[in-house]
Design a protein that fits this description.
The complex is a heterodimer of chains A (276) and B (124). Chain A is α/β, with parallel strands linked by helices and 276 residues long. Chain A has one domain (58-258): P-loop containing nucleotide triphosphate hydrolases (Rossmann fold). Chain A has helices at residues 14-17, 41-56, 72-85, 104-110, 129-136, 180-183, 185-189, 210-219, 237-257, 271-275, and strands at residues 31-38, 60-65, 93-99, 115-120, 146-150, 167-173, 193-197, 226-228. A 7-stranded parallel β-sheet of chain A has the order 4-3-5-2-6-7-8, with helices on both faces. Chain A starts with 13 loop residues before the first helix and ends with a helix. Chain B has a domain at 3-68 and 102-114: hypothetical protein PF0899 fold (2-Layer Sandwich). Chain B has helices at 3-20, 41-52, 118-122, and strands at residues 25-33, 61-66, 70-73, 79-81, 97-101, 105-113. Chain B has a 3-stranded mixed β-sheet, covered by helices on one side. Chain B has a 3-stranded antiparallel β-sheet with strand order 4-3-5, with no helix packed on it. In chain B, helix 1 packs across helix 2. The longest helix of chain B has 18 residues, at 3-20. Classes of the chains: A alpha/beta (276), B alpha+beta (124).
């Protein structure tokens, strides 16, 4: 949802909120102010600011979301290893980790020699754009090609918060069941790519049918591609690495055609400035 | 439970609007919520007294308007109502639709109590 161009007002709802519509009311003696902003106006503003920083440094930002335990960190570890095996690949990765508590996931990533920043959200069930903005102060984006943001394991709340990412990847692990897209449509609708993770378990947990998961995704009008992947036996890994390369390339092409106006550098501005 | 965070963000916006316009208080806040917004209206209502306490909108009524899910078919161009996990076209049954309403979480309007008109009071 965008607040700057008025696209919140759609063909579907404008009859309700335009003057004379059901939701347009004014009582005498008081001032009614029409707003039409997202409830997360401030978050969305900061998210856009984050996206501009990524773009200024030609960095692709990927937001990884799933239930807790679907294998987000394991996928990142396998991805780092896979990219390391390919001597032609010069893709430099950084990871921002979100969890309620502990540095465990960041430490797992750091063991592979990759820069990782841990955000401990305390009791917050999701990452928001301000937390990512803070994390970016500790990351020199000029050094990286891709930043993975591993969101808090949760299929509900993270879907509502734009972080400034370019792509949303949602993992659905085989033990969770193939009907998760029907149960959590808000999350799966925002996915640009759906990965059926722990696919090595498909022969054992054979009531999970990938075609059912795909059918449920179509029911929510999702056009996201679906990949089966196992971080354990590495099947599906090359397809995923290809996707990453394609996304990095298409972002670069996009930015060549739509250059970012570099009005200020991330490293020389005051944090408060970004919050206004 | 991200409704408290969303409610606090709402209160920030409402307070800014009230301050900008020199309002004495906020009497009502109208928000529009679609089923695909990821926000649960009842939880938002529960969070509202906590988020509004001590603000200029402390006594404002929170009005929630429920927006319908509507999809437009990319194949046959028709518009239809849909369910959160069944966004298919009712006319031709195709799944390739775009959502035209139903994912909103929008602050639509606020009603402000302003300073009474001093000149008209003076006549009496």
């Amino acid at each position: 949802m965008c607040d700057t161009c008025g696209c919140n007002v759609t063909h579907g709802n404008e009859n309700l909120i335009r003057p004379g519509g059901k939701l347009h009311k004014t009582e005498s003696g008081k001032e009614a102010v029409s707003v039409l902003h997202s409830l997360l106006h401030e978050n969305d503003h900061t998210a856009q600011h984050n996206r501009e920083h990524f773009d200024q440094h030609n960095v692709l930002a990927v937001n990884l979301m799933s239930s807790p335990g679907a294998g987000k960190t394991a996928l990142l570890e396998a991805t780092i290893q896979q990219l390391g095996l390919n001597s032609n690949s010069k893709i430099k990765i950084a990871v921002i980790e979100g969890d309620l508590e502990t540095e465990n996931d960041a430490e797992r990533i750091r063991k592979h020699g990759v820069k990782a920043i841990q955000i401990a959200t305390g009791s917050a069930c999701h990452l928001d754009a301000h937390m990512i903005h803070q994390a970016l102060h500790n990351l020199d984006l000029a050094e990286f090609d891709i930043v993975f943001i591993e969101n808090v394991g949760n299929l509900v709340c993270p879907a509502s918060f734009d972080l400034g990412q370019h792509q949303n990847v949602v993992l659905l692990s085989v033990p969770e069941g193939d009907d998760k897209p029907a149960k959590y449509p808000v999350m799966f609708r925002v996915a640009d790519l759906v990965m059926i993770s722990k696919s090595d378990l498909l022969p054992i947990l054979d009531d999970f049918k990938p075609e059912n998961a795909k059918r449920y995704l179509r029911d929510i009008a999702s056009t996201a591609p679906v990949m089966e992947i196992s971080s354990k036996d590495k099947s599906g890994m090359s397809q995923w690495i290809n996707w990453i390369n394609q996304q990095i390339e298409s972002r670069k092409t996009y930015l060549e055609q739509h250059p970012v106006v570099a009005d200020h550098s991330h490293h020389h501005h005051d944090h408060e400035e970004a919050r206004t | 439970m991200h409704e408290l965070a969303i409610c606090q963000s709402l209160m920030d916006q409402v307070e800014n609007i009230a301050l900008e316009r020199n309002a004495l208080s906020v009497t009502s806040i109208v928000i529009g919520i679609g089923p695909l917004s990821g926000v649960e209206a009842q939880l938002l209502k529960n969070a509202y007294p906590l988020a509004s306490a001590g603000t200029i909108a402390e006594h404002a009524e929170l009005v929630i308007e429920y927006l319908p899910i509507r999809v437009k078919c990319t194949q046959c161009d028709s518009e239809s109502d849909a369910l959160p996990n069944k966004l298919i076209c009712k006319q031709c049954g195709d799944w390739r639709t775009t959502l035209i309403s139903g994912d909103e979480m929008m602050l639509m309007s606020v009603e402000l109590e302003k300073q009474k008109d001093v000149t008209s009071e003076a006549v009496h």
